[in-house]
Amino acid sequence: MSKTLTPENKGDKVAEYESEMSLTPPDSWWNVGHAYFCFWMPEIPGYYNVTACVCDERWPDLDLCDTLPIYFKPHEAQGAKLEADPTTIEEGETSTVTLTLLDNHGRPATWDKALVTLTITGKASFTTGGKTVTGWTDNGTLQATLVCEGAPDIVTVTADVGGHWFPSVQIVQMGPVTEFSIPMSQGRNDISIPLWAKDPYGNYNNTCENVFASLGSTVQSVYHYDAAEEEWSVWMPGGTPPGEEPLTEIIPGEGYQVYTSTSGTLTISGTFIKDQDTLPATHKVVKGWNMIGFHSLNEHITPRTYIEGPTGRKTGIKYQEPLWSYHAGYRSTGAAVYDKEYMTPGWGYWVYITDDAGVIIPQWE
Prior knowledge:
Blueprint: E1 2-7, E2 17-20, E3 46-56, E4 59-72, E5 79-85, E6 88-89, E7 94-102, E8 115-121, E9 124-126, E10 132-136, E11 141-148, E12 153-161, E13 168-173, E14 178-184, E15 187-191, E16 196-197, H1 208-211, E17 219-226, E18 231-235, E19 245-246, E20 256-260, E21 264-271, E22 283-285, E23 288-292, H2 303-308, E24 319-324, E25 349-353, E26 358-360
């Protein structure tokens, strides 16, 4: 038995399927009641002629065929996915968002159509203007391009696919490259950096050598305390002393003690966010004394808002006031108590946590 499957409308939509099945009958009789065969359903909807032929090599002139027109309709879309490329953008850059309809096997449903509305939540807009785009899918897809508005943010794009599916995708905006300076006094300075640092070549580089390059030979040592591990680590320009835990990177959201031989200015350039894996660096704290940083450029955030979280996004962390931050030149006595109403970008702090461990979630800006 052989079969062919061809659509009535020729051209680039022609699809042909062929297979053969041979039957060897007994010497005295041959009786075929039913025969079944399967074939792949074509992806293009329409009428197809299915032809079945029965033949026997002993009677080559025997050729019994029958043709039956059958209408094939592929499965309707059973879902949708939303993707973005790239998923991390800087100021002025764009990202292309693609909505794809899917069949029940998770494959693109290129034959189906749906009315789609894409909506942006966050500091970005579509290049066509506004924060929404509506249109019909073409070959099962719909694309739109958004542009970064400059400020650091997590932008979420949500799709309404005919009121049936609502996939979403996130795009990280790193914000503009910013230069930030921290005044340094001779002696000890409790600091933190609010940016992911870049080197002179424009590459992200948070090594101690790059972060403290602007201080030159005046930087003597940098210390960091990990409260969870109850462990100090240290970096010195000449190398880590024997037996000490080496400090290799300076991370936003962490606090550091920096010792300098003279006063000066620590200057770094970078972005508030680096990529999907380094969204504002959350900081884990445990019961007792913790050394934390201030990962923000906002000069109007109170210690309570930063540590316990703003209204509607409380972290559950409880701490004992006040915070402490030591700067040799802050007062004539070099006092450590922090008595300001708002936290200072670029400063590091000691805070006493009164309950179990928690996670500080930094402010966006």
